[in-house]
Amino acid sequence: MSTQAxxxxxxxxxxxxxxxxxxxxxxxxxxxxxxPSPPIIKIKAAPTPANATAPRGSENHAVLxxxxxxxxxxxxxxxxxxxxxxxxxPPPPDPVEDEQQQTFSLTSTCLRAVATASSWLELIPVTxxxxxxxxxKIPVYHGWADDDPALPTTDxxxxxxxxxxxxxxxxxxxxxxxxxxxxxxxxxGAACRPSATAILRTISEINTSATAESFxxxxxxxxxxxxxxxxxxxxxxxxxxxxxxxxxxxxxVEGSTDExxxxxxxxxxxxxxxxxxxxxxxxxxxxxxxxxRPNTATLxxxxxxxxxWKAAVPEExxxxxxxxTIQGWHALFGxxxxxxxxxxxxxxxxxxxxxxxxxxxxxxxxxxxxxxxR
Length: 374
Fold this sequence. Notes:
Pfam families: Dcc1 (PF09724). The chain has helices spanning 27-33, 95-100, 130-137, 160-166, 171-180, 196-212, 225-231, 239-249, 266-291, 302-312, 345-351, 366-373; strands at 7-8, 11-13, 23-24, 42-44, 63-65, 70-88, 105-106, 110-126, 140-141, 184-185, 191-194, 223-224, 250-252, 261-264, 299-301, 339-341. It has 374 residues and is an alpha/beta fold. The strands form five sheets. Strands 2, 3, 4, 5, 6 and 8 form a six-stranded mixed β-sheet that branches. It has a three-stranded mixed β-sheet with strand order 9-11-10. It has a three-stranded antiparallel β-sheet with strand order 12-14-13.
């Protein structure tokens, strides 16, 4: 015998259906949006180039971004219809229905289908290569000299805020990639990333100005970023580049009333300058290969590199300059040969002598030997 209640709910179907898009939220995201202080959720996609004729690639699809995480949006189709219902007013009395209610009673709650969907969006967490995405969008800043243009004149300047809106990654992932590339905004507001030459010149200007002003960078009392910028008033260095360099060679002083208070980290400074100097040598080698001497390797001795390195860091950091502190780079210095090939990592490897070919005659196959005997 059936135990189902002999009751029903009046149901109707609205003729004017409202368009809806359904999103299936993972538990972590559901708890985030239902929290007492839900964050702003964004749906982002990279803009399609104006001259693009091909369909959008998979790397340009839309994503949903929380402040710290990125989710890929996947369109899922369903063979059945999904109805969105809401309570409605009870229908007017009908003699036929009144007669049916004697055997099948209806509740006073009524439902009406106001929208229909046959698909929904599924969210899949993704971890994008944010640094590569930014590297493609941000031009390289080479310097501020008249003979070395700072930024390409053909590129339209784009600010950090515009980049953040146009790149399909979360705000936290964008900030981490921005810091990894040492990106900054130039004086005209254009986002850019410094070349190794620009970094070394900025450090040189800071050291020169600090020496001229008798300003001890390694003072235990620390210093403010505004004090460094004040010493560089007569130099056309973007303030953003100076701030990036200071943050790369110094540690922020915690608990200070001024958030822009720094103290020189000697170990951190030596590693940063050493890697920038080696990268500068690599860029010089690359230009020489492209320009005039593709088959000639530009060699710099170990002692010459060390001399440049020690001259580039503050005097207090000279004793910290050791090749074993440059992780991932000192392997280019051969242990047997005191010279190092300066060039890009690809150029350096390609400039090495190729393995010697085996000049001995190859052994013949069995059928060749048999044919020769015949």
